[in-house]
């Protein structure tokens, strides 16, 4: 992990895989951040607790509930044997930005910049996907309308075909009839 890849300290894929969607927010777990910064999780959390003013609300940092933690462990296939004894803290994009102010190592700063760029890239991908979804919805609506119009046309064609298939009733003759006298 300490080897650089294309000028990056950590491959982007590794960082992206450490971003989770919890409570409607993109967050990173304290232990994952500590690993990326190459510090111990307890030291990261101590630095955070000494600077709680930088993390005023849940839109910066919050602690997972037991259920959220169990669900996260299940998703990651993490064993409950050993390791963390309490639910971890998670940091939102703003919280990760605040971490750069309390962790001053060169590695922490470089990794933090990389994480912020990845968060920005994810946001742009989400916006692009939203635009694509809107365009797809427009196309679906047009296709639905065309399907309805085609259905009406085929119904009229079926009615015309049914009328042609029915034998015409015999016509009454018009004009002079010798039997009428």
> Order of strands side by side in the largest beta sheet?
1-2-4-3
Give the SSE order as H and E letters. HEEHHEHEHH
Question: What level of helicity do the residues show?
Answer: 55-70%
Average residue pLDDT: 79
* CA distance, first residue to last residue: 116 Å
Share in β-strands? 5-15%
In DSSP terms (H or I, runs of 4 or more residues), the helix count works out at 6
Structural class: alpha+beta
Radius of gyration from the alpha-carbon trace, in angstroms:
34 Å
Largest sheet: 4 strands, antiparallel
List keywords for this structure.
single chain, 181 residues, alpha+beta, four-stranded antiparallel β-sheet, 6 helices, disordered N terminus
Spell out the blueprint of helices and strands.
Elements: H1 12-16, E1 19-22, E2 25-29, H2 30-37, H3 41-50, E3 61-63, H4 66-76, E4 89-92, H5 93-102, H6 106-165
Antiparallel strand pairs: 1-2, 2-4, 3-4
Describe what you observe in this structure.
Strands 1-2-4-3 form a four-stranded antiparallel β-sheet. The chain is built from six helices and four strands; from the N terminus they run H-E-E-H-H-E-H-E-H-H. It is rod-shaped, with a radius of gyration of 34 Å. Mean pLDDT is 79; it is low at 1-6. A hairpin with a 2-residue loop joins strand 1 (19-22) and strand 2. Helix 2 (30-37) crosses helix 3 (41-50) and helix 5 packs antiparallel against helix 6. The N and C termini lie far apart (116 Å). It is of the alpha+beta class and 181 residues long.
